[in-house]
Amino acid sequence: MSNSGNELLRQALAKYASSGMTAKTEDNELSVEGSTSGGNQSRSRRQSPASSRQPSRVASRAVSRNQSRIQSRSNSKDKEEKDDGLDEDELVQAADKLSVHEGAEPDVGGDHMGQFSSEQLSSALSALLDKVSEKRTTEEGLQGICSIMAHKYIGEFELRNRESYLDAFKRSLRNYKSLKEGLLASRGIALWFLQFGENDDSAYSDIYPFLKKVISDTNTSSITAQIIHTLAFANFIACEDYRDSVDIIDLCSKQLSDWKSAELTLMALNSYGLMMTVLGGSNIDLAKQIFERDYNYHYELLDCDDVDVRIASSENIALMYELSTEENDDSTNQEDDNENFNYNVAGLDFLDHDELLDKLDDMSKDSTKKHSKKDKQHQKQALRLVVASIESNINPSFKMNFRNIIVRFSTWTKITRLNAFKLTCSNGLYMQFVENPIMPLVFGSSIDSIVGNNLNGLRNGKAEERVVVDSKSEMAKYRSKSLNKLRSNKNMVPDDDF
Questions:
Q1: Closest CA to 278 of 314, 223, 213, 233
Q2: Dist. CA 176–CA 218, nearest whole Å
Q3: pTM for this prediction
């Protein structure tokens, strides 16, 4: 990395520090349950009466804090004096935690788009590729590359290095030494197709047998789950022949029939649905035939202990109803979208329509004691859309808030595809909507308001870049606690003698 590149990246990382939602957090959301122990510990400290019983400790801590602050300022000055000598290793350690800072104003001159220039990102990515090639820093390099690829569109200015990235991901996945390395490498391949793989059948033909072999060689369900998603996502981005989707559907079907874990089953359901949006849009008769084979798996999974599996299964069924009627609805005016009429279920006559509706309706009113309150609320909200869609052909309405812009997705096809992109990009989804030319091709007019708003912001010199915070993330929990605290403070009645 050149000295000028070092300086640019150093300044960028100093100004746009991590907001807490790094790739590491996103990766954990894919494979393991998040920990909330930090929040509980804070609560227990606030509830402790020790401070009221021992005021001397409070004074002692105050003195200690003052001394600590003085020392911290002194250290900070020393660090600033040494910044000019910041070496490449320190830069890349910061780069591997790279994330987009909320509310910061970007430099929109030249080839700048968002918070970082092409030169800054290229310098960071080059150094991170070097880290991937070293055994002791492979995970750090993979995590940094995945974070940048998720949050930024680099497909144009990094086109010359496209093969280097794919080779690095394949090498790491072939010889991964830890679960994290395997997950990052597999996710990196999905992100590679998002950046470079549009309509690239040859790249997919190369990666398909490689990923199939990794699945056959691994006994880890988390790795298998991530690879299935990567295969489906790569197929969706790169393949022009819908018949390739049948291979992925068959792979997912095997996972549905042979339970290994909730995570793997959920990923198989999501990937199955994504591939059905491809197959059903091109050959609905073949799609119906395959779904008839797999319908019983979906119906049985409606009773799964995992709420996300139950919901995903029901949404796949709703998707198939939608695809089965689209060919008959082409002549219908948009103004009739909300009118209630019965589905023409020709081709889905293998299922008991009334039995299915009764089942889904019961799920939308879940009162089972074995399910948690949170799970029941989540299921009710999702199943109401499914029931309305299947019973009355009322379009689903899924809303997302991007920078105070409400974006609606009103078909199961778009919602299914949105879920796949959310899983791949996580908190970088917003910037992919803004920058990546694939997104308008996939989502059409649904995201026009996002792109238009960003262009207006750039013209006015006031564009902002914000990470879309997942509702289950630690940052979202922190915000919720802060808002609750503010509300409680507003409701406090002041003492009369104050």
A1: 233
A2: 11
A3: 0.71
